[in-house]
Amino acid sequence: MSSSNKLNRRHFLQATSAAAATGVFVGSSSLSRGQDSPNERPVFATIGLRNQGWTITDKSTKFADFAAFADVDANVLGAINEKLEKKTGKKADGYKDYREVLDRDDIDAVMIAAPDHWHTKISVEAMLAGKDVYCEKPLTLTIDEGKLIEKIVKQTGRVFQVGTMQRTECDHRFLKAIALIRNGRIGEIKKVTCGINGATGSPVIPAIDVPEGLDWDRWLGPAPKVPYRALPEMRKGYGGGVPLFTNCHYAWRNWYEYSGGQMNDWGAHHVDIATWALGASDTGPSKITPVSYSLPVKYENGYPTVSDQYNSPTNFEIHVNMPGDIPLIITSEGDNGILFEGTKGRFFVNRGKLTGKPVEELESNPLPEDAVEEVYGGPVSENHTANFIAAMGARKQPISDVWSHNRMLETCHLANISIRLGRELNWDPTKREIIGDEQANAFLSRVNRKGYETRM
User: Fold this and answer.
1) Other C-beta atoms lying within 10 Å of the C-beta of residue 74
2) Which is nearest to 293 in space by CA: 257, 330, 256, 254?
3) For 156-212, how does the pLDDT look when each residue is reduced to its tens digit (9 = 90+)?
4) Which residue range or ranges hold the Gfo/Idh/MocA-like oxidoreductase N-terminal domain (predicted)?
5) Which residues contact 366 (CB under 8 A, 6 or more apart)?
6) DSSP element (H, E) containing 235
7) Structural domains for the chain
């Protein structure tokens, strides 16, 4: 196993593709014990099971065995365990308290899909418990949380994959988009626009009794203690089976207390690809300007003045000065996706299409055979989980590492701070602090509620 620890990034990603093709992996615990057992599958646990929690679990059963689940809602825990049994023939052990999962020696890695305000606490404690981590995006609720996670990854040597799956999946069209740029097909980049959709506000949402089976205090966790709120109308489609208007399941993304709205939801995907394409994954912006925005409730000093309605932005246009003074526009208008504009042309990419003259010209002037692999660093993995598990085997960081993710997410966090305060922010990407604005810098961190501090 010592030779695998010396794999460079290309070789490790080649191992990813081979592993994904064969379904053969080595669990991290067996690596740490010095064993070489090619038939041993890693043992996973999922913490936070609703919607994306099941999605990442479902696609990972091909590569890993799930021994434990944790969720503060007994109804969700039971329903997802039924799904797992139907698919694999075996249920996982269920827990309300994720710490019981972390105390188990047989768990190699945890997959975290709890709401954003829980990500850092669970991630840090999982790494300190000796687990590798796959955590959904956006990774953090604040910029300082990102710095803490980086510190613990470095301290523990754990493998950490962030769930920005556009780097691996979606038919690799985002990788092809970056390959077009790196091969000069649009010349010098002059502007990038990320369309990430707007949102809607809500009616006044009354405080009501907590649904049976939900531990509301533990769902809130590090966030402030507030009443459970919901209206009777139910959500349909993806995220269905819960109230359409609530401060809990699914709709929590519309509250700054638990998330960052669309800026940190779709923004964490598209700003990630834009930052990668600009070669800015180890630095950051210099200025963030809120050109226009709408908030669904009144704000004072950066905080909403009411607590019974959604409070994240509904519409916005943010101008970001990226390295080389290349403008990055984050907007709620237009198509969801990324428009790259250069001196020689432009093209648009999202999860459904890759269009524009430079794309059409590929028919007569294709990219080099290895262009996409050059972007990825080697053969592209079957999916995000395959990349994570191969990284566990190689004891290397995966394609969506915490450092590049945090640098990108800083742009989204800063955009939200600029909206909340209604002013331009100047950012020092080296010191990772806002220049000359004490009030704005106070938004780089939050204090966890007493009793839910991170265990260190």
Assistant:
1) 14
2) 330
3) 999 999 999 999 998 999 999 999 999 999 999 999 999 999 999 999 999 999 999
4) 85-163
5) none
6) none
7) 4-169+378-401 (3.40.50.720), 171-199+256-376+403-444 (3.30.360.10)
Rounded to an integer, what distance in angstroms lies between the CA atom of residue 451 and that of residue 407?
30
Q: Give residue-wise pLDDT tens across range 314-370.
A: 999 999 999 999 999 999 999 999 999 999 999 999 999 999 999 999 999 999 999
Distance of CA 80 to the CA centre of its chain: 21
- Distance (Å, whole) CA 363 – CA 229: 54
CB 256 within 8 A of CB 313: no
- Its sign, for the CA torsion 164, 170, 174, 176, is positive
pLDDT > 70: what percent of the chain? 91
Residue linked to tokens 């966890």: 448
Structure tokens at 199: 């949102």
Record the tokens describing residue 200, joined without a space. 């809607």
Concatenated DSSP letters for 20-87?
HHHT----HHHHHTT---TTPPPEEEEE--TTHHHHHHHHHTTT-EEEEEE-SBHHHHHHHHHHHHHH
pLDDT tens-digit profile of 31-43? 433 333 445 899 9
First CA to last CA distance, the chain? 30
Return the pLDDT at 382. Answer: 86
Separation in Å, CA 138 to CA 135, 266, 271, 293: 9, 9, 11, 21
364 CB neighbour count, 10 Å cutoff: 6
How far is Cα 194 from Cα 350, in angstroms, rounded to an integer?
A: 10
